[in-house]
Design brief:
The chain is an alpha+beta fold. The chain is built from eleven helices and ten strands. The termini are far apart.
């Protein structure tokens, strides 16, 4: 090969390397990228977007035009606002959810708004999460549209997404920029998500631990799950599996499930068994459970047993006194509440004994 040919080849390679390196440069943006996320139950909702500044500009109706628009680039002739700058603003749901009351599958979506006058807008979630802004928007890829009301807020210079309301089963996400906010509610069926995850994992390592069966039975009990399914789970924790072990905790959970199923006699008998395994605090707990269930005979039995086992503990005397008061036995209530005060009780127990004695007219 001639020297000139070699030089040309080397120069070509250097230019290719140079252009490749240039294409991969990571330089600062005018509108910085950000990600914000919020957990609801065990589900995460996250939004990734770019943050332009107001910078003295008139935003609504000018910088961000109302309605659908031909942006003069790309394939869309009727594009919504990209809810930020640069690439698609995207929203990700780790589990199925509802947005403004409408079902959305787990996944990542492009997030857009049709901004309108008179404090209204339309939220759009698109299956195209990889486009550049709204320039290639295609309404055939819409998976959700929801009309929302915007709010007037104090000036926000940088476009910001935030989760400004959070509850056990929902959150409200808002885009806030200039003096306008675009709020939309995201709801998650937390009980279904949690129980479905356990069902999917229970045949694996998760199912080899007794505590996991107890926790899921208890979660289902207290969160509107299938009580018969929960009963099967707690039975596995108690007996029949290599990891099973009968404990006060799982007997107590089973008892509460039976009680909710209306099997009150089975519930009461199981609590008698649990009482034989209980420590002082646990015995007090099931005593109050029986008191609330108006099973006064068992409540007294458990509270009296606790007093017999712990004669110098102020709290157990206070609890027995409270049980007698609930049952209308004023004489015995005063007796045990005063005994509680004589045992130098902690502040919370003292306050309860004194309150109950005042209600009885004894002090």
């Amino acid at each position: 090969m001639k020297n000139s040919t070699i030089k040309k080849t080397i120069l070509s390679l250097m230019l290719c390397i140079g252009f490749s390196a240039f294409a991969q440069l990571n330089t600062p943006r005018g509108s910085q990228q950000a990600t914000v996320s919020q957990r609801v139950g065990i589900s995460d909702i996250s939004i990734t977007y770019s943050r332009p500044s107001v910078n003295g500009r008139e935003v609504w109706g000018k910088l961000v035009p109302y309605g659908l628009n031909n942006l003069g680039f790309g394939t869309s002739t009727a594009a919504p606002w990209r809810a930020g700058a640069n690439e698609n603003t995207i929203i990700t749901f780790t589990h199925d959810a509802k947005v403004e009351g409408k079902a959305i599958k787990a996944g990542t979506y492009g997030l857009h708004f049709i901004v309108k006058e008179n404090n209204v807008a339309t939220l759009i979630l698109s299956s195209d999460a990889n486009a550049w802004g709204s320039f290639f928007y295609n309404d055939d890829k819409d998976v959700l549209r929801a009309d929302i009301k915007t709010k007037t807020v104090p000036h926000k210079e940088l476009l910001t997404f935030e989760f400004d309301e959070v509850s056990a089963k929902s959150t409200v996400a808002s885009l806030v920029w200039e003096k306008k906010a675009f709020p939309f509610k995201v709801e998650v069926d937390v009980t279904t998500v949690v129980l479905d995850e356990f069902r999917a994992k229970s045949n694996g390592q998760t199912g080899f631990q007794r505590q996991n069966w107890e926790n899921m039975a208890n979660f289902s009990l207290n969160n509107g799950g299938d009580l018969n399914e929960a009963l099967g789970w707690i039975d596995k924790a108690i007996a029949g599996q290599f990891f099973s072990q009968k404990t006060f905790n799982n007997l107590s959970i089973k008892g509460q499930i039976l009680n909710k199923l209306g099997k009150t006699s089975e519930y009461a008998a199981l609590m008698d068994e649990a009482a034989g395994m209980a420590n002082m605090n646990q015995l007090n707990t099931i005593g109050y459970q029986m008191l609330n269930a108006k099973d006064y005979e068992r409540a007294l039995k458990y509270f009296k047993l606790n007093v017999a086992n712990n004669p110098k503990n102020a709290n157990v005397h206070d609890s027995l006194g409270e049980a007698y008061k609930t049952m209308g036995d004023k004489k015995n209530a005063i007796k045990y509440l005063k005994k509680s005060l004589s045992l130098n009780p902690p502040a919370n127990v003292k306050a309860n004994s004194e309150k109950l004695l005042k209600e009885l007219g004894a002090i």
